[in-house]
Structures are given as structure tokens and as C-alpha cells.
Design brief:
The protein has 485 residues and is an alpha/beta fold. The protein has two domains: 149 residues, P-loop containing nucleotide triphosphate hydrolases (Rossmann fold); 304 residues, Luciferase-like domain (TIM Barrel, Alpha-Beta Barrel), CATH 3.20.20.30. The protein has 17 helices and 18 strands. Helix 9 links the parallel strand 9 and strand 10. Helix 2 packs across helix 3, helix 3 runs parallel beside helix 4 and helix 9 packs across helix 11. It is elongated, with a radius of gyration of 28 Å. The relative contact order is 0.10. About 3% of the residues have low confidence. The structure holds guanosine-5'-triphosphate and magnesium ion (MG).
């Protein structure tokens, strides 16, 4: 069972029930606030009862401060004092965190046995009193208002959480066991001396890690969300041509090409060429464009949104017309072409992914002409709503919703374990508070992201474009392979 995170987690159980062991196997040491440990800090050791008053005062301060910052806090005390439990629960509510009670329901005899084996056992009558209290708490816990009450029985108090799902061999169709395909979006290019080697090594790693494809951003100046204006950002169709030569099984394309950069026919030509070079595995992400600065710098007109959206619709229509069989004239949807002579032919269908979440125009263009619609949110409530809007447009324009795939761009922090996740958050968050940054990037291990991706799949998402904010080397790509199992 996976617990909410961030969250307040209050442990309840007698001495020797396994509370500290359970917490240590699941949380970083800094996240566990333990009365025993604080007795050791403020007194002579974890069992210095004279230091209890000071230890609990500090414990309350630490718990309150962490909850206020929205940080996961595991309270490791006996947990038998109802007044304290309720106060922590209220503090979690005030901090906007879910509150979980974890009852270590270890059999009495086992607690006695473990207690007896300790260097400094709790006196037998004291333990007996604790075990009676646990029995009482067991009866009232459900009624206290916890978001979740977890009972850990003797069988599943294993010291380690379930092993991470083993990375499976990539399946041939590259759909994971979650029913998803994932495409690595490369947005930063720390390639040092050898751009070609870096690009092709990253692509080979993505292939090996079971990704279905690789997407490049299409920008003329690196965007501020990703890096600095003087960071390198390659022209994607040229770079994808080089990547095609690496001979992977990846689909290759952009996310997203602004319609303002090139006449749609030229994008159609680039994609058809890529398709011919890459065994028919090319796609085009296309959007209305938004980064005014790069247009100005490169002498490219940046008309008002309405005109760019008109152009977006014509662009999708134009590309499809040029890729269609034959060379006949085309005249529909505001696009008139006297012929559609385009060679080389694409070696396979070229899906068009319409990017953007504009509800009135962009989603309608996707519904009418797109093969997929890339929604730029991973907030599940917002996503569910946008999928609803997309499907309403499909209904409206008489298109079967199954013909328009839902894709999302996910920008997650992925760590090897809990310590690594938080080390990455600390490194990447800049001036953003840690809890805010962690929430925005869904910071978690591979297993945590898989749980979330399963929910995204449940909302109708079929492909996830993933761009991790700290992708630097092929090894970073290989570390993501568990996502594709
Ligand atoms: P107090 O801090 O005294 O309240 O106890 P606690 O609930 O924190 O128990 P703790 O985690 O320290 O575990 C007590 C003893 O039981 C330790 O020696 C652990 O190694 C052992 N133990 C904890 N969980 C398990 C388990 O799942 N299986 C086995 N075999 N031993 C366990
Ligand atoms: Mg303990």
C-alpha cells in the first residue's frame, strides 16, 4: 500500500511493536520526528525519561514547523495520547496535508519477546499498560477523523517496503504494463564537446530504457522554464535526422513545433523525410507558438493569437493533405493547394500531436484534425476537465473520440530512493519552497510515478511525454527504465 505523500504520519503502537523500524524503512531520517531520538539529543540517551518534557517540547516545535511548510512528517512516539494525536491531526489540516494514522498492531507476545531482548527493556508492568492502551486506541482510531488509518499486522511489518517492480524487457509495441507509452522529451542539451555523440547516446539509452519515442523541443532560444538563453538548443529536424542514423526503434518528432517558424508545407516535408529515414516512425507536435522573444530575435512575424490559431488549423490540414496518397489538388478547411506532390512519401503514418490547452480553439482543432492532443497539465482534476472538453469538441465535430489520443507533458523529479528524491528537490528548487517544488514536479521514486501514471491512464491518457528537469547524461535516461515496465 502506498501512503499519501506529502502527509502527516502518526505512528501508534507499544514498545517493540516496530514503529521506528517501519518508519526507517520508508522515510528519510529527517522526516521522522522521534521522541526517543530527541531524548538522546536533550538527555543522556533514548530512554532518559527525565528528558521527556524537553524532548516532547522540541518534538512539538519540529512537527509544527514541518507541517507548516507542507513537508512529510512521521511522528514516532507511542502515539497513545489522544490529545496529542488530535492536535497533530489539526496541524496537518491547517497545513493542507493529509493525515494518516499507522497502527503497529503487533501481537502482545511478540512485543514482550522483542522488549525482553533489548538492552534496556521497558519494565513489564509498563509494557502491559501500553498494550492495554493500544487495545483502547484500536477501537477509537477510525472515529478520530484521519484521512487514512493503516493497520500493520505481524505478517507485514517487514523491515523493507515491497521491492521496486523489476524492470521488464521493453515490449515490442512499447506499451507498458500500465497501458501507456512514454516518449522522452529532451529539452536541455548539456553535450559539452560532442553534440552528435551526446544526442545519439541519449537516444540509444532511451531505446534501451523502453521508451516508445524521443521528442525534441522546437525553439530558437532556450526557454526560461528550462534553462538560460545562452544554453544550446538545436534545430530539431536537423538533430532528429542525426538521431535517426543511430538506428533505434524510437519514434522521433517534435513537441512542439510552433506553426510560426516554417510554412506548414516545409514542416510536412521535414517530417516526411524523417519518416523515410527512420522506418516510418516520425511524428509532428505542433502548436500556435508563444515565445515572442525568439520570433523577434530571428526576424519571424508573431501575429496575434487568433491568427496563429487560424494558421495552426491550416497547418494541420496542409500537412495531412501533402502526406495523403496521390498528388491531387486539395481545397478544404480554408486551404487550397493546386497539387499535393510530396516525395519522398512518409514511410508510415505521421501522427500530428496538437499541443496546447486552449479550450475553445486549440482543443477544437485537435478534435477536428489531430491524431492526438497534448494537454500541458498533470493536475488530475484539471486534466479530467480538459479531457471532457476535448471529447465534447469531438462529439460536436462528429469525430470518434478514440481517434484523438490524449497525451500529456510530464515534468517529474524522479529519484532512485527517498533520499535521492529529496536531494534532487533541494538541488533543483531554486528559491521555490521545497514542498511546493516537490508537489509541482510530483517528486517521487519510479514506483511513486507509476502509481500516478496509472491514474493518468485511468483519465484517458495514452502517451506521456516525459521531460525530467535534470537530464544530463544517457545514464539519467537509463535510470528511468522502470517507468516503462
Ligand atoms: P519503541 O521505540 O520502544 O516504542 O519500539 P518501536 O515500536 O519503535 O519498535 P522498533 O522499531 O524499535 O522495533 C523493536 C524491535 O523489533 C527491534 O529489535 C526491531 O529490529 C524488531 N522488529 C521491528 N519490526 C520487525 C519485524 O517486522 N520483524 C521482526 N522480526 N522484527 C522486527
Ligand atoms: Mg521506536
Amino acid at each position: 500500500m502506498r501512503l499519501p505523500d506529502p502527509a502527516l504520519v502518526v505512528l501508534v503502537g507499544a514498545s517493540g511493536a516496530g514503529k521506528s523500524t517501519w518508519a526507517a524503512a520508508r522515510y528519510r531520517a529527517e522526516e521522522v520526528v522521534s521522541s526517543d531520538a530527541l531524548r538522546g539529543v536533550l538527555g543522556s540517551g533514548p530512554h532518559d525519561l527525565d528528558a521527556s518534557g524537553d524532548a516532547f517540547a522540541v518534538l512539538e516545535t519540529v512537527v509544527a514547523a514541518r507541517l507548516r511548510r507542507g513537508l512529510t512528517t512521521v511522528v514516532d512516539t507511542l502515539g497513545l495520547d489522544a490529545t496529542r494525536r488530535i492536535a497533530w491531526l489539526d496541524a496537518a489540516r491547517a497545513g493542507g496535508l493529509p493525515a494518516v494514522a499507522v497502527l503497529l498492531d503487533t501481537p502482545d507476545a511478540e512485543c514482550r519477546r522483542r522488549n525482553g531482548a533489548r538492552d534496556r527493556p521497558v519494565p513489564a508492568p509498563v509494557l502491559a499498560g501500553q498494550l492495554r492502551s493500544v487495545r483502547d486506541v484500536r477501537a477509537v482510531l477510525d472515529a478520530e477523523g484521519w484521512d487514512l488509518v493503516v493497520r500493520v499486522g505481524a505478517e507485514d511489518t517487514a523491515a523493507t517496503p515491497p521491492a521496486a517492480a523489476a524492470a521488464a524487457e521493453p515490449r515490442e509495441d512499447r506499451t507498458s504494463s500500465l497501458g501507456l507509452r512514454s516518449v522522452l522529451q529532451v529539452s536541455r542539451f548539456p553535450w559539452d564537446e560532442d553534440p552528435l555523440a551526446w544526442l545519439t547516446d541519449v537516444a540509444r539509452a532511451a531505446d534501451e530504457a523502453g521508451f516508445a519515442g524521443l521528442a525534441l523541443m522546437d525553439h530558437l532560444i532556450q526557454v526560461p522554464q528550462v534553462g538560460r538563453a545562452w544554453d544550446p538548443i538545436p534545430e530539431p529536424w536537423v538533430a532528429l535526422g542525426a538521431i535517426a542514423a543511430a538506428g533505434t526503434g524510437l519514434e522521433l518528432g517534435t513537441l512542439c513545433t510552433p506553426v510560426t517558424f516554417r510554412p506548414a508545407g516545409v514542416t510536412a516535408k521535414a517530417a516526411a523525410t524523417l519518416s523515410a529515414l527512420n522506418g516510418g516512425r516520425a511524428f509532428v507536435g505542433i502548436g500556435a507558438g508563444w515565445f515572442e522573444r525568439e520570433h523577434a530575435a530571428y526576424g519571424i512575424p508573431f501575429p496575434p493569437a487568433r491568427e496563429r490559431l487560424d494558421e495552426l488549423e491550416r497547418a494541420v490540414v496542409t500537412m495531412k493533405a501533402l502526406w495523403a496518397a496521390g498528388t491531387k489538388a486539395y481545397d478544404d478547411h480554408g486551404v487550397a493547394l493546386p497539387e499535393t506532390t510530396s516525395y519522398p512519401r512518409p514511410a508510415g503514418p505521421i501522427p500530428v500531436v496538437v499541443g496546447g490547452s486552449g479550450e475553445r480553439r486549440t482543443l477544437r482543432i485537435a478534435a477536428r484534425h489531430g491524431d492526438a492532443c497534448n494537454l500541458r497539465t498533470t493536475d488530475e482534476t484539471e486534466l479530467a476537465r480538459l479531457v471532457g472538453v476535448l471529447h465534447a469538441h469531438c462529439e460536436d465535430v462528429g469525430r470518434d473520440r478514440s481517434e484523438v489520443a490524449v497525451t500529456v507533458l510530464d515534468l517529474p523529479v524522479v529519484g532512485a530512493d527517498r533520499d535521492d528524491v529529496w536531494a534532487r528537490v533541494e538541488r533543483l528548487r531554486g528559491r521555490t519552497p521545497a514542498a511546493t517544488y516537490a508537489a509541482r514536479t510530483h517528486a517521487a521514486t519510479v514506483d511513486g510515478h507509476r502509481d500516478r501514471w496509472a491514474r493518468l491512464a485511468g483519465l484517458g491518457v495514452s502517451t506521456i511525454f516525459i521531460a525530467t528537469p535534470d537530464l544530463g547524461s544517457p545514464d539519467d535516461v537509463l535510470a528511468l527504465r522502470g517507468l516503462n515496465a
